[in-house]
Write a structure and sequence with these properties.
The complex is a heterodimer of chains A (about 140) and B (about 140). Chain A is mainly alpha-helical and about 140 residues long. Chain A has one domain (about 25-140): Fumarate reductase/succinate dehydrogenase, transmembrane subunit (3 helical TM bundles of succinate and fumarate reductases, Up-down Bundle), CATH 1.20.1300. Helices cover about 75% and strands about 0% of the residues of chain A. Chain A contains 5 helices and no strands. By secondary structure, chain B is mainly alpha-helical. Chain B has one domain: 3 helical TM bundles of succinate and fumarate reductases (Up-down Bundle). Chain B contains 4 helices and no strands. In chain B, helix 1 crosses helix 3 (about 70-100) and helix 3 runs antiparallel to helix 4. The chains are: A mainly alpha (about 140), B mainly alpha (about 140). The interface of A and B includes residues 50, 52, 59, 74 and 130 of A.
């Protein structure tokens, strides 16, 4: 007696798409992104408290480590961090509105597009200010 | 002891008042309340440290000393440290529960998580309270 079900026939999924990739719903992806940005921020916080704790060792030790943060590569990582935290914050507000606002569930999808819009509007000038010096250092000019 | 006949009560309107804990309810609520505070605390912190006035390039020991000479920023950083660590720790606890398949894996990941939380909370708090701007 076979213990496994017969494999799905090709016709089963072919009606919409020929591939097998699960596309999901934007709501699911917003949840996935919330988890990923949260975990990344948690790991960053671990390192960040350790580096700041160097102020208890000596000014030289702290300054030496902070100096390595003033490089173009780390500037790019900063943009990533700010972007991750900003998404997590905006989506967190969305989650709260869905939970506590009577019309939240109804508007969860437009709220997702709105938060992505806000994210973009904040990140473009934010990235500009964070990368300004790195760009000058890398490509010269004043 | 007299033996009594016990019958299941499938349509019993109340769930048995066993030792049920409301911990998950409170942690759910904490995530929302701390999240709301962290939106202000963390975004304010990131804006000041990364974007305004040259961002990271102006940060050094003297800059930290200047900030922590104010009880306002000391309190800001202390509150942010505790809320962020508990909020993030609770989030990771949920993620470990979701993805760890074996009990031993779950156990050890949580031990590591809780240990790291204690280290960061104790160290961070100690640094804020014992900061010495005249350290050699």
């Amino acid at each position: 007696m076979p213990t496994t079900a017969s494999p799905p026939t090709a016709a089963a999924g072919a009606s919409r798409r020929s591939g097998t990739l699960y596309i999901g719903d934007p709501g699911m992806w917003s949840w996935v992104a919330h988890r990923i940005t949260g975990v990344l921020t948690f790991f960053f916080l671990f390192v960040h408290v350790l580096d700041t704790a160097l102020v208890r060792v000596s000014p030289a030790a702290y300054n030496a480590v902070i100096e390595t943060y003033k490089t173009p590569l780390v500037a790019l990582l900063e943009v990533g961090l700010v972007g991750a935290v900003l998404y997590h914050a905006l989506n967190g507000i969305r989650v709260m509105l869905v939970d506590f606002w009577s019309k939240g569930p109804k508007y969860q999808r437009p709220m997702l597009w709105s938060l992505l819009g806000v994210w973009l509007v904040v990140m473009v000038p934010g990235a500009f200010f964070m990368l300004q010096r790195a760009a000058t250092e890398l490509f010269g000019g004043h | 002891m007299t033996e009594t006949l016990t019958l299941d009560k499938p349509r019993s309107p109340r769930r048995p008042a066993a030792r049920r804990s409301n911990f998950e309810l409170y942690s759910w609520l904490f995530m929302r309340l701390s999240g709301l505070a962290l939106v202000v605390l963390v975004l304010g912190h990131l804006f000041i440290m990364n974007i305004v006035d040259g961002g990271v390039h102006r940060i050094d020991f003297a800059f930290v000393a200047g900030r922590w000479s104010s009880p306002f920023w000391q309190f800001w950083d202390l509150l942010m440290l505790w809320l962020a660590q508990l909020h993030g720790g609770n989030g990771l606890r949920t993620i470990i529960d979701d993805y760890a398949r074996k009990d031993t894996t779950r156990f050890w990941l949580k031990i590591m998580l809780y240990a790291s939380m204690v280290v960061i909370l104790v160290l961070g708090t100690l640094v804020i309270f014992t900061f010495d701007p005249t350290i050699a």
